[in-house]
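Below sits my pick:
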Amino acid sequence: LMERKIHVKVNRKEVMLAKLRKSCSCTPQKLKNFLMDFFPVLRWLPKYRCKEYIWGDVMSGLVIGIILVPQAIAYSLLAGLKPIYSLYTSFFANIIYFLMGTSRHVSVGIFSLISLMVGQVVDRELLLAGFDLNDDTPPALGDGSLQNDNLSNTTAFNLTFVGINAECGKECYAIGIATALTFMAGVYQVLMGIFRLGFISMYLSESVLDGFATGASLTILTAQVKYLIGIKIPRSQGHGMLVITWINIFRNISQANLCDVITSAICIVVLVTAKELGDRYKHKLKFPLPTELVVIVVATLVSHYGKLNEVYASSVSGAIPTGFIPPKVPEFNLMLRVALDALPLAIVSFVFTVSLSEMFAKKYAYTIRANQEMFAVGFCNIIPSFFHSFATSAALAKTLVKTSTGCQTQISGVISAMVVLLVLLFLAPLFYSLQKCVLACIIIVSLRGALRKFRDVPARYHVNKVDTLVWAVTMSSSALVSTEIGLLVGIVFSMLCIIVRTQRPRTALLGQIQDTSFYEDDLEYENLSTVPKVKIFRFEAPLYYANRNYFLKSLYRLTNLDPNLEAARRKKYEKKEKQHLKKGNHRTANGLDIGETTLQLVPKQIDFQVLVVDCSSISFLDTTGVNTLKEILKDYKNLNISVLLACCNPSVIDSLKRGGYFGKDFGCMQEMLFYSIHNAVLFAKDQK
């Protein structure tokens, strides 16, 4: 008999008060530790090994900066904003994460899925405010200065009904929505960090995240097709955007711009070929080929000197101003309008950042602090929202490039920010003639990784069918309904799958492995021997209210005995026998003598006298579970069948004690509970 340890009861009130006193105390050392924890750069920067790290950081920073510029300009199409705001976002995110992030390798900045989620909210609010979602209006002519920026949309509205008292054009209102949404997402992330709600990310399984990314990629792909072929269709809003957009595309396919189609075909061929060659020979290349930048530079020169916009009406990016717009506090009333939309945005942004941080920390043997990561990404949203930026997240593709080019610390992020700053201050107006179809090509080619998930479906199905179903449901709902609804559906469906698994788990009768003290499922293994007069039942899930009936049905089915029905049948026979005895007839209703009747009352199918319940897979019991075990104990006892429990964990034993399963003084506990199946079987054999 194993003796349980006596645990000293802890006064939780005193512990909480002690922690509160400790956290509220303020000493110089504690203040220093707080600052160094909140700004991890203060810990690692003084220890920076300049000679060892600087070359890798500078090289990776330059490469990422070169990649960031075309991606930032391209992803502005997804967000429904001007390219300058994407450049602001990339600049500020890298600087803030450098100060507050704990990962050495992740690249935080503009991300396609986050840009899509921002763009959907911006489009919805623009539509509700009465703006035209068609962004294919002729670009404004100018020198690229900030003063000419408002000429790209001459329609202005007095938006007092949403709290903006001055006249505000389409672009002004769009960035107002984006900054309010970003600020709220950052506030949610900081609050989750304060209240340590990082566990929320656990409910986003790999299947849900992959399905969400794939479904959102289909939506992104669909949104870019109109730029590829140069047709002017309204930007679809609401549920079913993917289907509606494709219907509009096929209706207007005859209006396709031949110049855009040819340009798109050439760009996609060049980009895909370069990507495939880069993947094939990446071990020979010291750094990835800057294909996107080369394509953008060449395409801009061709468009400018070929006058593709004037001659062929090809849609171009238009004027991108230089410098920084003065900071502005996000509108409070707009925050109220997008408060609900900011929640899924905050969760997705945080989950992608933390999962990537943990992945690369494990790969390079260091640790991160998930809670600090939540603060870092939160302030990467809050602070830039005052500088006309939108939501950010870590991106896998750029992080992989960063590590492959020798990144050692977040100094590389500062170098990338300097490259973006150079574009912001001097080079942005040079992209005036860049065709939008080129940007769409860059976006579509960047989706290769997510779209390749379709090739993994057979392998995924072979590994786990339920996870494949979760992936398919999340992907379909994200693509066909909306990204936010798709994420919610994926989370709920994956949790339902877990509930169903525990509600209808595997059950089995066990047989003994010959010449051993071990027992296994007799339907899964050959050459197992049955134990005479003993049935061993295994239930592979917690026993709680939702699977109580399944537990009983499985037990009765596998043992071929329902004790309630058997007890009722016996009572019926006993009643008939009493009636015959009263009449003086010594023969039963079946024509048998009374002595033979006793044998008849014991059915032939009861071929066991002891039931052993293997509780090794039962992780916990609720009140219903305890009552269920008490019920079968009583029912089988009425049939003179003993019920023994084996392999119970301490929490299950405690639940049984509290529920009165072993009686008031636990006197019968040694005869009802065993620490192995074999001990229970040996005890059963010793009993008459």
User: Anything to note?
Assistant: The chain has two domains: 40-133+169-499, 507-571+604-687. Residues 40-133+169-499 form one domain.
